[in-house]
Amino acid sequence: MLAAGVLCTLSICAWLLRYSRYGVDFTDESFYLVWIANPFLYEWSVYLFGFFYHPLFSLLGGDVAALRQANLLVSFGLSSMLVWVLLRKHGPGMPASVRAVLAGSVACAGFLIADTWLPTPSYNSLAQQGLLVAAAGLVLTEREPSRQSLLGWLLVAAGGWLAFSGKPSSAAALAVVAPLYVAAAGKMNLRLLALAGAVAAGLLLATAFAIDGSVQRFAARLSTGVEYLGYMQGGYSAGDVLRWDGFSLPAAERVALVVLALGASFGALCLQGGARAWAVGAVVCGLLAGGTLVLSLDVPVRGAALGPYKDLLLLAVPLAAVVAVVLAPAHLARPRRAELALALLLAILPHVYAFGTNGNYWQAAGAAGVFWVAAGLVLLLPALAPGGGLALLPLALATQLVTAAVMFDAMQDPYRQPEPLRHNRMAVQFGSPSSNLLLSDDYAAYLESVRKAAGLAGFQPGTPVIDLSGQSPGILYALGARNIGQAWMIGGYPGSGPLAAASLRHVPCEEIGRAWLLAEPGGPRRLSGAVLQASGLSVERDYSPAGSWHTARGAGGYADPRLQVLMKPLRADAEAACRQARQAPAPAGGR
Questions:
Q1: pTM of the model as a whole
Q2: Residues 455/489, Cβ–Cβ less than 8 Å
Q3: 436-439 and 426-429 as β-strands: parallel, antiparallel, unpaired?
Q4: Are residues 407 and 446 in the same domain?
Q5: pLDDT at 589 over 60
Q6: Is residue 548 in a domain?
């Protein structure tokens, strides 16, 4: 049974790492790449993930597939660390081999950070990884000073710093729930808490100097980012983020959740029984492992697509733990105050991760569902017979099965891509010369037409471009252009125009004067040429079409192809016009 857990872990890892070479999204995922590739190009930001992942990007030579693989492995490794620490502290006497297999098996849930097939590092992955570090630290913390406790508090500080750099809203929520947990668990030590706060502040101070050279400029970066985020009117205001969302699982998924929970709890109880019960438990483990292997070995499987809350199937694991605790023999222990407090903390952390997003909180929380699984383990550990760590294996195998099902569904319908990843067969350079991805025929033809038209127009890599299409950061990334103003000049929101106009005012007039334009006439997320007025320029007067092409089916999430036009600058005195316009009061911008 332990071998089955190891085999499933290796199979899932190999499967996801192999598919890291497949597919690309030209909107959100490409925004992540643009921001990571050149984060110092932008004077304002809310998220700092680009600065954190940029050294890794450079080390890997801009290889997108390798960057994705590294991101997935970091989430897997930190998830393993959390579960290992948890089992070591709350499962005394458990053999190291059992603990290692369980840690690796449960850690597969960390891969759900790519649950829509956006495996490239982002603010979401950095927030998840920071919370994993902080959670491991909170497990280790104690009221009395010791090496272990000190390490725990330092990990809490480092995790909070990483979470802030990913999503400041998640770090703010963590700053509330972490002290509440240590107080509820009887671990509060004000001196050590103050030390953790001081270390986190020191790390943030070092970050400020590394990025902007001073605290004042760093503070201005963040405050401007918050102000500009408000321009967009995208649901990020305080009134928008303080809410309670609901969810609804399709009937088939509700049945699957209940069956999985009952099966895992039944298997856990059988593995604490006699020889006959053990045999039944082994059968349960075999069925769970078999399902995982069928999916992760890429066996063609037909079935209905999962719904938007598919990650919530992981709730079957803590539910199984509750059932097993209730049905466990009366002479075995039940969770005490410390375990209950830790389980509650872990159960809340997925919503800490989701806090601040403009999407449904339950849907977003699923990407951090590994914490729900960890909460289930904490509840069940005290009710295990001495040396009964193997009874947790059905829960771990159930975790792997849900992970495999979710990732299989993501590969069948990858985010804003036209077909399942397994159908992608065209090798295309995307970004640096060492970066090659396997794309669909349509996407490969799209990129080829873009490169051909840009080459005929005389476009050179490194040339600044203002993206008025509202949805094509990936096209500029593929061309090697400099996306000026924003890493993604995003369209489609009520305040996209004012945000674009304000962003361009941070770009030097020298860059504005020689910038090309990418336009999408009639596009659903296009930006008006009015955003250039604050820079003293006009699309109609100062630019000339240099090349054009049609988007691929499915690009940006839209089925119908659309015309895109690359335009080169005509005006020789564009830089001077920009400087003159900026001396006047800034206009509100256009939509």
A1: 0.95
A2: no
A3: antiparallel
A4: no
A5: no
A6: yes
Measured CA distances, 74 to 23, 56, 84, 369, 467 (Å):
21, 12, 15, 16, 33
The verdict on 72 and 108 lying in the same domain is: yes
**429 part of a folded domain:** no
pLDDT > 50? residue 164 = yes
Q: Which residues pair with 519 in a beta bridge?
A: 565
6 in any annotated domain = yes
Q: Which long-range contacts (CB under 8 A, 24 or more apart) does 552-556 make?
A: 552/418, 552/440, 552/442, 552/443, 552/445, 552/446, 553/418, 553/442, 554/416, 554/417, 554/418, 554/419, 554/442, 555/26, 555/416, 555/443, 555/446, 556/26, 556/27, 556/416, 556/471, 556/472, 556/525
Distance separating alpha carbons of residues 474 and 491, to the nearest angstrom: 14
Instruction: Give per-residue pLDDT as tens, 424-433.
Output: 999 999 999 9
Q: What is the pLDDT of residue 310?
A: 96
pLDDT tens sequence across 316-356? 999 999 999 998 876 677 888 899 999 999 999 999 999 99
Closest CA to 501 of 488, 482, 487, 485: 485
150 burial (CB, 10 Å; 0-12 / 13-18 / 19+) is middle
Question: Alpha-carbon distance 474 to 502, whole Å?
Answer: 22
Residues 315 and 402 in one domain: yes
The letter for the amino acid at 255 is: V
Same-domain status, 408 and 483: no
Residues shown for the chain: 591
Residue 242 exposed, middle or buried by CB count within 10 Å (0-12, 13-18, 19+):
exposed
Q: Are residues 377 and 304 in the same domain?
A: yes
**β partners of residue 436:** 429
How many distinct structural domains can be found in the chain? 2
> DSSP labels for 69-99?
HHHHHHHHHHHHHHHHHHHHHHSTT--HHHH
The sign of the torsion formed by the CA atoms of 498, 502, 504, 505 equals positive
Residue 422 domain-assigned (yes or no): no
Residue 406 and residue 455 in one domain: no
Residue 122's region, left for phi above 0, alpha for psi from -120 to 50, else beta, is: beta
Can you tell me the distance from the alpha carbon of 48 to that of 126, in angstroms, rounded to the nearest whole number?
9
Side-by-side strand order, sheet with 482-483: 482-483, 464-467, 516-519, 563-569, 543-550
Q: Which domain holds residue 387?
A: 2-231+250-412
pLDDT digits (tens, 9 = 90+) for 255-266: 999 999 999 999
